[in-house]
């Protein structure tokens, strides 16, 4: 999925007024897939801390496990069995609002907890040759 497509939030919310539909919002949304095997996995914030020595925020997210998951026939490894926790590392960037576009890039790090289903992600200023927008 391209960054431009990801910028549009998925319709994972309802309008306060029952008569209004998704076009009532002042921003553009993308539809959620109807196929239950294409539903996004839900991760909830479990903890947040500041590593003062590295000046980095560390946030941890745990996957919500549904009691009844659909049976999906994947042509690759089952993604629901791969990642139970996501750890995000981010250094504060006071000059972010002075740059355009105001995007950061994500880098998947090698997870230190071998055997545990953890994905580590570093968020920061985009480096040379990192994609920041769709062509």
TrEMBL record:
This is Uncharacterized protein. Pfam families: DUF604 (PF04646). It comes from the Eukaryota. InterPro entries: DUF604.
């Amino acid at each position: 999925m391209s960054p431009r497509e990801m910028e549009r939030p998925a319709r994972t919310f309802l309008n306060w007024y029952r008569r209004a539909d998704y076009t009532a919002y002042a921003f553009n949304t993308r539809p959620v897939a109807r196929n239950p095997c294409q539903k996004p996995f839900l991760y909830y914030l479990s903890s947040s801390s500041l590593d003062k020595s590295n000046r980095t925020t560390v946030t941890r997210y745990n996957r919500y496990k549904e009691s009844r998951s659909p049976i999906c026939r994947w042509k690759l490894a089952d993604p629901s069995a791969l990642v139970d926790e996501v750890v995000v590392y981010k250094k504060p960037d006071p000059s972010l609002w002075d740059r355009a576009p105001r995007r950061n890039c994500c880098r998947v790090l090698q997870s230190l907890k071998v055997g545990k289903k953890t994905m580590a992600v570093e968020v920061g200023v985009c480096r040379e040759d990192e994609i920041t927008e769709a062509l």
